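INFO batch 0412 | record 1 of 1 | parsing
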Amino acid sequence: MIKIIEGRSPERKRQLIESVSQAMADSLEMPLDAVRVLLHEYPAGHWGRGGRLVSDILDRAPPEPPGTQVADATAKLLAN
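INFO prediction complete | emitting tokens
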């Protein structure tokens, strides 16, 4: 199960599932068809970091193109 903040396009989610599936199949030496991936998306207001809601963190971030903010914030959250 992969937990992410909602807001990504179907194509980005498709890419994520493909790359994670391939990595699991390769590292575990198992058939790709045997890999199962479940994405669970959460609203930014249901995810916290450092005692704050991610939605509040995103509200204070400088404006960026649509979709970039959520993707960048999620990448930062997962990196820490």
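INFO post-check: The chain has a mean pLDDT of 86.
INFO record closed
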